[in-house]
Specification:
mainly alpha; Antitoxin; PaaA2_dom
């Protein structure tokens, strides 16, 4: 693992294992996203869609 070092004596083996498990899971999620064959959606397109959706929800709560 990149950037690992020996934990301080007060850090339990459980927390180290938990961190290692999370790191493996996180890296697998990132790799799966990179490997996903579906086309990426540009950030600006998602932002516009979300702003529209939020505005619609605000209107619904005023009724």
């Amino acid at each position: 693992m990149v950037g690992t070092k020996t934990p301080a004596p007060h850090v339990s083996k459980f927390s180290t294992q938990e961190a290692d498990n999370h790191d493996r899971w996180f890296r697998a999620e990132i790799q799966a996203a990179i490997n996903d064959p579906h086309p990426s959606i540009p950030h600006d397109q998602i932002r516009t869609k979300m702003h529209t959706r939020i505005a619609e929800l605000k209107l619904d709560t005023k009724r």
